[in-house]
Amino acid sequence: QVQLVESGGGLVQAGGSLRLSCATSGLTLGSYAMGWYRQAPGKQRELVALISTLDSTNYADSVKGRFTISRDNVKKTLYLQMNSLKPEDTAVYYCFARQGSYYWGQGTQVTVSS
Prior knowledge:
The chain is 0% helix and 56% strand. It is mainly β. The radius of gyration is 13 Å and the shape is globular.
């Protein structure tokens, strides 16, 4: 079955960087649109970044120029490089794969201290 497992979250100071990884199994990565959502306490879920099957990318305005989404189809892993982190980036980050239906990871906590 399809599985997505995130890693790489943690506590970082404002201005720092983290790289999230989403290891997948049970799917052909290049056949799926992939992306990252985040959810902060008391806030709506936000689509952070998306990469299409043609490798075109889209970002939320709040992260443009700071975050980069990429994937390695051979390693079957999705990445989110997060630079210049801000306290407002604090959230649980979820990766997803979409091909009609959605598949989700369990989430990884990112906490940015001021």
